[in-house]
Each structure stands twice: as structure tokens, then as C-alpha cells.
Amino acid sequence: RSRAVGELLAPTSPFDKKCGRENWTVAFAPDGSYFAWSQGHRIVKLVPWSQCLTNFLLHGTKNVANSASTRLSRQNSDGSQRNKPCEHIIDCGDIVWSLAFGSSVPEKQSRCVNIEWHRFKFGQDQLLLATGLNNGRIKIWDVYTGKLLLNLMDHTEVVRDLTFAPDGSLILVSASRDKTLRVWDLKDDGNMMKVLKGHQNWVYGCAFSPDSSILCSVGASKAVFLWDMDKYSMIRKLEGHHNDVVACEFSPDGALLATASYDTRVYVWDPYIGVILMEFGHLFPPPTPIFAGGANDRWVRSVSFSHDGLHIASLADDKMIRFWRIDEEYPVQVAPLNNGLCCTFSTDGSVLAAGTQDGSVYFWATPRQVSSLQHLCRMAIRRVMPTSQVKNLPIPSKVVEFLCYQIAEKV
Fold first, then answer.
1. 38-67: per-residue pLDDT in tens?
2. Count of CB atoms within 10 A of residue 334's CB?
3. Is omega for the bond preceding 287 within 30 degrees of 0, making it cis?
4. Of 93, 99, 217, 246, which residue is 20 to 30 A from 268 by alpha carbon distance?
5. What is the 3-state secondary structure (H, E, C) of 334-384?
């Protein structure tokens, strides 16, 4: 069993409606400085992650997240604020379904034509938080001050997921129940650059590859789509799931893609050739396609890739979190969790955070194992080469095999 590290419990009052309290999303800042989650009832809580860990060590695992004094820090927006991370409680005005952190790299120019005048000039130390709302709006906040910067309006339904390009360009992609994905350029004051159409049903999630060149989007009706983010065109559809696909994430080297579905399975794909390399089942024996396509009590809600590229976490409706190795058929660790909705690894991969239906967050220590030489070699070369290029290298076939992720053989 995994060791519990701590928990952040959402404040409750006797007259709270149960509906609207859900914690649909949790997120860590790219530099590991902040942790954010949706507490339910329109509220997002931003906490300095190091402070959070210190509290867990000092006070045991329990920590009620309702400090009133943190509201004062929102009034302060001077430069000294940036040096010391502060907690913020943000009222987003509607139920929050998605969160994403974005950080700026000044050298990355905006793709827009008119660069004469911009409302915002994002510097090196900029850290933004995007929140996707029930009414289709996306609000962009300054993490250091808690101030609202932009209000992006174009989606007509719930914004179910958000992801920033990892290259620091502040390109934001949103996935919505209105069956579209939208691409926004925050360096161009939040201008909407493109609408990606192709989903015939709700879009549940989206994720960038580490080099920002490919976007994966997943949705209802078994949909897993890959998009070329230079041309904004669809590369391919990945077929294999038997029910709605609700979450996706690339491995740190970009060579693997994990997708989670209501069909009780997590698949690990080679996205470059569209092949399933590994299947992690959450129901045994594996259900038939008809049963997998319905209400099977084992819906997988969330999946996350660890930063070691070796471990994957999944969260399912059977009140369990599972930690998997990409080369083993069965979980290496498990943890109990009632009514879980989402999970993500911390920036350094040492902790997994999971959100629940009552607006709380729970944290577990993750499996720590020394990576094999083969895994380290694979990650090093796959960061810069897709599958086809590795297979065409002028090296012995055994070495090519050593460097490629293979389809797992059933024991």
C-alpha cells in the first residue's frame, strides 16, 4: 500500500449543497512552487507547495484548507509579493471544471501578426493559472497576486480540460462539451487562434507532447485524436477503447501516450505508429466490449504519468488508486480513495495528488525505484526522436530493439 502523505479538506457548512462541491481538477505549477485545486462552489485554492509539505510534516496528515487571513494577500500586488509565495482563495464566479498552470519564456514570440501593442507583457517570472468554467468561460489569473488578467469567451458549453504548451509560448488549448478544442495565444492578449473540429461528441481532455508539437484530445464515443500543432491538422485517430475516453497524458520523453476510459482500461500507446503497447485492466476477468461499453462500476476517471517515465497512476470508481510500472502487468502499489475524480503527480514525481467529490485533496508517496539503464537510454533518445527515426538508425537491430518501447508480452 502507498503511504499517505497528507490531505487538504475543503471547508463545509451545514447548508452546502452536495452538488457543486466536486473537485474536478488538481494541478502543480511547472516549477513546483504552487499547488491548485477546485474546492467546489466556484472556489479555487492556490497554496505554496513547499509550505503545504511542511504543514504535513509538522501537523500530521490533516490540514483544513480554510485560512481566512489568506484573503488579504489578494489586495497586495507589489513586486515584493513575487519573492514570497502566498496562498490565494480565488472566486471564479462559476463551477470550476479545469485548471492549468502556464509559465512564460520571453524569447518565445507570439504567433500573432500585430505585435505593436499588447495589454500584457509577460516576463520571465510570469506564472499564470487558467480556470475552465461551467458557463464556457476561461479565466486567466496571475498566480503571484491572485488578480484576474483575462476572461476568454467563445465556448458554448463546459470547459472540461485545459493545457498549456510546455515550451513557454503561453499557447493554451481548451477542451469543451461543445465538441471543439480551441487554441488561445495569451501573449496576444488571449486571442483565439484556431478551432479544432473533429469530435462528434463531448471532448473530455487534452494534453500536449513535451516538445509541444503534438496535441492529444480524448472524448465520448471512444475518441482519441492526435493533432499536429504546427499545421493545426489531425494526424490520426487511435482506435481500441470500448467506451468514453476521459483522460490522457504523454510520457516525459513524448514516446508514450496513456489514455483512461470508462471501459475499465488504461492503454499505453506508441502515438507515432498508433499501436497499443500495454493494457492496464481494472476489472478481472476483462469485460467483453458490450459490458465495457456500459455502466460497469470500474470506470477509470483519471490517469497521470510520473516524471520518471516509468510509473503511471490511475484512479477508478472501485475506490482505489493504482500505481503501475510501464513494463509490468499488475499494480506495484495501491491506495484506497472514496469518490475520487482526478489525480496528478507532483512536478518532481514524489507525490500523487487526488481530488474527490467533496472538494478535498489527498496525497500519497509514490513508488521510488531505480530506473534500468535500458529505460534511461530509451528516455534520452526518445526525447529527440520519434519511433520511425529510431528504427532507421544505422545501428545493429538488437540495439534498435533495446531503444524501442515494445508491446508487452502477457505472462
1. 998 899 999 999 999 998 887 665 555 444
2. 13
3. no
4. 99
5. EEECCCEEEEEECCCCCEEEEEECCCCEEEEECCCCCCCHHHHHHHHHHCC
